[in-house]
Design a protein that fits this description.
Blueprint: H1 4-10, E1 29-36, E2 39-53, E3 56-67, H2 71-74, E4 77-86, E5 92-101, E6 104-113, E7 118-123, E8 128-133, H3 143-151, E9 162-167, E10 175-189, E11 192-201, E12 215-220, E13 227-233, E14 238-247
Antiparallel strand pairs: 1-2, 1-14, 2-3, 3-4, 4-5, 5-6, 6-7, 7-8, 9-10, 10-11, 11-12, 12-13, 13-14
Length: 258
């Protein structure tokens, strides 16, 4: 489960351009219930606000994940992810990652400097610093989800084709993230039946995932493009995350009535 929380926090949505209505607004709050096997393992939340960072108007997203109840006896998770990104073009300016997952810990901050085309990564746990070359299309782990919501609509997608972007969120450096569109699907949720866009994020196989196509993501096929469900085949066991609550959506959340 070590890198599931960021994936859950991170692969949540898709869509909008300057010509289409906005997909989100300040005050949006999403809650997800995460199951690991038969256990109700944890909850994760995402909260979007509007702020200023060094006099730059930004959106600030805080994502938190924590194990609860019986599952916390076996595996404790206490994760916080933050991203500050531009209100207009979605460029990230600061990314914060503080995780404690069963003894696996990270304490990372990244500052993106587009005037120098560099990103300074501070590893506070190990007291190290790294400089990485970047461009103005790079995303962090959290801003990527909102960037996708702000850029792509169903009319921009082709079944079987992938969306790609460069991401930076760890000292491994910038890497190419890919998200394949699988088509539309209707799934049952606690809110009713929801028509979704179905995606296959490509992940690294090995320690966490069984293979690179182990993850499946469903997002609402409406103007919000919020994540509805994620399923993952892990190296050990399986995981499922479902939307459990929401507030402050920009657009109407569409439910299919029987």
């Amino acid at each position: 489960m070590k890198k599931i929380a960021p994936i859950v926090l991170v692969l949540f949505s898709l869509c909008l351009s300057a010509q289409r209505p906005k997909a989100y607004k300040p005050g949006e709050w999403l809650k997800f219930r995460i199951h690991y096997g038969f256990l109700n393992a944890s909850y994760a939340t995402l909260h979007l606000t509007s702020e200023e960072l060094d006099s730059i108007p930004v959106y600030h997203v805080v994502g938190r994940g924590k194990t609860t109840g019986f599952a916390s006896i076996f595996f404790k998770v206490d994760d916080t992810y933050e991203s500050y990104f531009d209100r207009n073009d979605g460029k990230p300016y600061r990314f914060i990652r503080k995780v404690d997952e069963g003894g696996y810990t990270k304490d990372i901050e990244i500052d993106f400097d587009y005037s120098k085309n560099t990103a300074l990564l501070k590893d506070n746990k190990n007291e190290k610093k790294y400089d990485f070359p970047i461009h103005d299309q790079v995303q962090d782990l959290v801003s990527a989800a909102y960037y996708l919501r702000a850029k792509y609509g169903v009319e921009d997608l082709t079944v079987g084709e992938s969306i790609g972007m460069d991401m930076l969120f760890d000292d491994d450096g910038v890497y190419q993230f890919k998200l394949k569109f699988l088509g539309t699907d209707t799934i049952r949720t606690k809110f009713g039946k929801v028509e979704c866009l179905k995606f296959r994020p490509y992940v690294q196989s090995g320690r966490v995932f069984r293979e690179e196509e182990s993850l499946t993501l469903w997002v609402s096929n409406d103007l919000n493009k919020i994540p509805i469900r994620i399923k993952a085949d892990l190296a050990v066991g399986s995981l499922k995350a479902d939307l459990d609550g929401f507030n402050g959506l920009k657009n109407q959340f569409k439910i299919i009535m029987d």
